[in-house]
Structure formats: C-alpha cells, structure tokens
Amino acid sequence: MAYSDKVLDHYNAPRNVGALPKDDATVGTGLVGAPECGDVMKLQVKVNPATGVIDDAKFKTFGCGSAIASSSLATEWLKGKTLEQALEIKNSAIAEELSLPPVKIHCSVLAEDAIKAAIEDYRRKQAEADANGNGTAAAAGEKAATA
Amino acid sequence: MLKFPIYMDNHATTPVDPRVLEAMLPFFTERFGNAASRNHAFGWQAEEAVETGRKQIADLIGASAKEIVITSGATESDNLAIKGVAEMYREKGNHIITVVTEHKAVLDTCKRLEKHGFDVTYLRVQRDGLIDLDDLKRAITDTTILITVMMVNNEVGVIQPIAEIGRIARDRGVVFHTDAVQGAGKIPFDVNAFNVDLASLSAHKMYGPKGVGALYVRRKNPRVLVAPIIDGGGHERGMRSGTLNVPGIVGFGKAAEICRQEMAAESVRIRALRDRLNEGLHANLVDIHVNGSLEHRVPNNLNVSFAYVEGESLLMGISDVAVSSGSACTSASLEPSYVLKALGTGDDLAHSSIRFGLGRFNTEEEVDHVVRRVTEVVTRLREMSPLYDLVKEGVDLKKVEWQK
Q1: Which residue, B239, B259, B279, sits at the end of a domain?
Q2: Over 70: is that where the pLDDT of A147 sits?
Q3: Is B402 contained in some domain?
Q4: A34 vs B402: CB contact, 8 Å cut-off?
Q5: What is the pLDDT of residues A84-122, one digit of tens each?
Q6: Which of its termini does chain B have fewer beta carbons within 10 Å around, N or C?
C-alpha cells in the first residue's frame, strides 16, 4: 500500500505535536479511540475566551500513518476557527485532502470525533465554571462569536 | 556497504540463492522437456532432473525419494495432507486436532472440513506459544484421524515439541501431519526421529523459487495414504496430477541440498545476528516485549512489541527496512494478528508488534543499522504518543476507560 504524498508529509513533519495544560480553563481535551483498536488520538484546543476562537491546537496519536496525518491536519485546520466552524469540519474533507484510501477512512472519522470531543470538553469546563460563577466573560465571548 | 532497502522479512519469502538459479536455468530453455514424456530424450532428461531434486528434498528431512510428492507449494501440501487424510480415513473417524496458531492454509482447510461433517479441535497455546502435551492427549478420541501441528510458527518462530507429539500420535494410532515450512532447512528435521507421517515443505522459504513445494507421505511404519485433491493423469503415484514444474523442482532440490550442507554453520551465524538485534533493541529501548518463547525458537526470528507505538506507523518510519507487523492496519482483514492474540499478548501490543525474519544474506552491518533506525523511529513516535504521555504521568493504561 503506497501512501499519498500528503500523508507522508504529515507523518515526516507533523504539525502541532505536543500538549497543552489539561487543567487550564481555556483548554479542551479530546481523547478518542482505544489501544486495542490500534488507534488513540488526543486532540487539544486552546480557546480565546473573549472571541471564542481557537488560538492553538495540539495533538498526539497512537496509530498508523493515516491516523497521524488525519490528526495533524485537524490541528492545522482548527487554528483560527471559531468553535462553531470547528464543529463543521467533516471527516470526508480530511479524507479527501489526504487522499485516504477506503480502508483508511475510519482514521479521518476518528479525527472528527477527536475535534468534537475536545470542543465538548472545553464547553463542559466553561459550563462548570459558569455554574460556579466564574468565566462569565468566556461564556459571553462565545455567545458573541456564535451570534 | 549497505544496500537499501534492507530485507528482513524472510518468513514471508526468501531471495533465490544464486546457486539455485544457476541450476534451474537450463531447464527453461534447453532441457525443457515434460518429465512425463516417456519416449524421448527431452522427457528422460527432465525425469532424471526431477528424480535428483526429489532425492535432495528427501535427504533434507531423512525421508526416501519415493515419499516426496511435489506440489505447487505448502498451501497445496497442507490442503492435500488434511483433506487427503480426511477422505481416506473417513470410515475410521471424523475428528481432527489442530492448534489455534496454525497458518491459514491449515485453519481454513479445517474450517472447510467442518462444513462437511468433520469435527475439529483447536488446541490453545500457552503464553510462550507452545501447546500443552496433556491437552493434546486429552483431546484424542477413538474417532480422531489426524493431528496437525506446525513445526515452527511463521509469526513468532516458536518451535513445537514435534517429536513428542509424534510419539503421542503414534501411540494412539493417529496420523500426524506437520507444516514444516518455517523449520525445514533451518533446524534439524528427521521424519523418523520425529515420528512424523506427513510434512509440508515450501521451496521459497528456503532460498528456492516460488510456486513449488512438497508433501512428505510416509510409506513404512506405518504406511499412510492420502486421497488426491487434484485429478487428471495420476502423476506422483496418483497423489497429485499435473505436469511437474521441472525447473522449480530442480531449484527446490538444489535449495534443499544447500540447506542440508550449510544449516549447521548458517544457523549459528544467523542466531548470533538475531541475538545481536534483540540485545541492541533492549539496550536502547524500554517497554519492549519479545512475543513467544526465546528458548524454543527458530534461530532467525524475532517478534517484538514496542509499547505505545503502532506497528504500521513504525514500518512507515523505517521505510528503508523490509519487515512486517502484527498490527491490524497492516493486515488485509484489518484484524490484529490472531497468533499474538492466542499468546495472550493483548491487542494493544499486537498492534505494536514487528516481525523480523533474518536470513542467509543479512549482515552484522545491516543488523546494526536496523537497531539504530528502529530506536530512532520508536523514540520519535513515543514522543507523539498519547499512551506514552499517560504512562509518564503514572497512569495505568489498563485502568483507563477509553471512548471507543
């Protein structure tokens, strides 16, 4: 099975490998997949609470070249997007960009799941903070961005 | 001088030894006769060459030439042995015993026989990959007609106690077949010392050409019969019809002869290379795990799981080295290795496994290069691995609830 140039590129020079502080209130962490499936992706987003825009994204992946490329690409696409825009990212777009063969489409699906999980985690944290009377600025910022 | 890519996948196939190729060539162009042509020199020449090859193959395993049936390869030999015995001994019984770690050529054949009213027991293996002889003894009934256990496993290189299994089978009057593909030519194998009744052999696993194999069929003490699975002309004493692959047989014979003559010295050299590879990896990396018994193992195999790193991504990183992996991503079925699963390895480590198959043409320089490359890539991929992160934080991965 030959890999597409784009997959090889992301594999050899992955974008945004790393970690953001999990306990930071503006960081959302998504951890999807399972070791026994051969695919685990950790995707993190740092959201600007005032604007609701994703300022930074980082990933770590246990998986094949296509899985690594899918998550690397996801972090590239996430930066600069609002949360709403980020939730619109579809696995099919990732698969097309990387020219994934049919047997590897599930890698792009997992990347989409990781994005959603990260954003859900961020929102959950914001909701908890709201409930505790903190982060009203963040909630307001997000509402403004989505209006 | 290193030549790339480096080939370390000798369980999948081997290059044809130059001496083998040289022996084969005249039989394509000058001595091209059909060995069954009884009435002219072309045929007689071909027949003579076939009989020489047959004897060379027999000598490798302590058999007589009359006991060698030429086939298209070990898959066919496995099919012939199992289906041939099943049909021939049907009156006596319908129970077959095999092992979960067998090659698909054996397992799929057994599955087909199950559809035709045969009862198959698939023995489990222990963590080291070996069967428990007591399990085998308990499984034998008075309707058992065949035991089939591979001599050496193609994924983890583990050697089963063939002589003991043969003795048990002989005591109970059950025919014993072994798929000897990965063992013949690499470790000593004598069909009488090991009490073997049928054995499958493959040329392209011992530096011979693809497309030719053999089935050893015992003629004495006791005489074993197999019904043919291919009809048409009655070649190979009625057991396997079809024009013989003369150049292939010549090559197979030469390859077998070279193995017989060079095995003792070669196995010492290759074992040292394998051990060098193993020690090199262990010296450089933590949390790596050898799959299968190191003690009961063929000298050229190493199967290692590199925790927190997935196999296909590792293969991608060492693109100048040809090896294979037990990862689901590298299999056509998208299932992780069933052999590693049977050893109790755990799917996560199965996905992280690499199989190294060293061979006649590998060198110390190549081994050292591979150790370096694997170390580099595993280290890099661990830095990219969320599993490694969790472990560094002190998390027990077995306790994590994964969102699948």
Answers
A1: B259
A2: no
A3: no
A4: yes
A5: 999 999 999 999 999 999 999 999 999 999 999 999 999
A6: N
Distance (Å, whole) CA B78 – CA B73: 9
Report chain B's mean pLDDT, rounded to a whole number.
96
Domain count, chain A: 1
Minimum distance, in Å, between the CA of residue A110 and any CA atom of chain B: 9
Asked if the structure places residue B403 within a domain, the reply is no
Residue B227 CB partners (closer than 8 Å, separation 6+): B83, B84, B87, B88
Choose the closest CB to B387 out of A37, A62, A64: A62
Domain harbouring B350, CATH code: 3.90.1150.10
How many CB atoms neighbour CB B167 within 10 A? Answer: 15
Q: Is B51 on the interface with A (CB under 8 A)?
A: no
Q: Is there a contact between A37 and B347 if contact means CB atoms under 8 Å apart?
A: yes
Q: For residues A26 and A16, what is the distance between their CA atoms, to the nearest angstrom? A: 18
Query: What CATH code is carried by the domain that includes residue B88?
Result: 3.40.640.10
Last residue of a domain, one of B206, B239, B259: B259
User: What is the residue range of B338's domain?
Assistant: 6-11+263-395
Provide the number of structural domains found in chain B: 2
Domain containing A134 — which CATH number? 3.90.1010.10
> Does A98 touch chain B if contact means CB atoms closer than 8 Å?
no
**Whole-structure pTM value:** 0.92
Within 24-63 of A, beta carbons closer than 8 Å to B belong to 31-42, 60-63
The mean pLDDT of B168-182, rounded to a whole number, is 98
